[in-house]
């Protein structure tokens, strides 16, 4: 085919100051005790790609400034606003009180398959992603409005959290 790769300058990406001036997307990322700073950095980079309004770093999550986060985020930790919360459950309760719909990316009895989930116009979504080993805490799942599950067809029962962030945000971005 001989298709020429585009240069970065040809991609028409927002400058950091333009990113901050955009209307809210209505989607925030909540990371529930993510152990790996690389996974946190990836969430920032993916959040930037899909214009997340904010990343909430809960519990043991690494926070900027961090060389490990920066290595993966490529500076997105400086464009996507972020906030640290000591406890995910307290944050989720606060977000719900502020009118956010809380969605956990988790395998539960009544989880909606991600491909069947549809964003409602005008509704804001806080999407919770869980710890690399234990997933989203059960008390957080209990407090959520709903759970979505990424269908998987192989022998493994989970995806890396950074991959899950990418899949779910891509789906939400295309369903606004």
Structural notes for this entry:
With 176 residues, this protein is an alpha/beta fold. The protein has one domain: Alpha/beta knot (3-Layer(aba) Sandwich), CATH 3.40.1280. It is 31% helix and 18% strand. It has a seven-stranded parallel sheet with strand order 3-2-1-6-4-7-5, sandwiched between helices. Strand 2, helix 3 and strand 3 (82-85) form a beta-alpha-beta unit. Helix 2 packs parallel to helix 3 and helix 2 runs parallel beside helix 6. It is globular.
Order of helical and strand elements: HEHEHEHEEEHEH
Biggest sheet, open or closed, and with what strands and sense? 7 strands, parallel
Residue share in helix: 25-40%
CATH fold group: Alpha/beta knot
Shape estimate: globular
Residues in β-strands, percent: 15-25%
- Measured between the Cα atoms of the first and last residue, the distance is 33 Å
Name of the CATH architecture: 3-Layer(aba) Sandwich
Radius of gyration: 16 Å
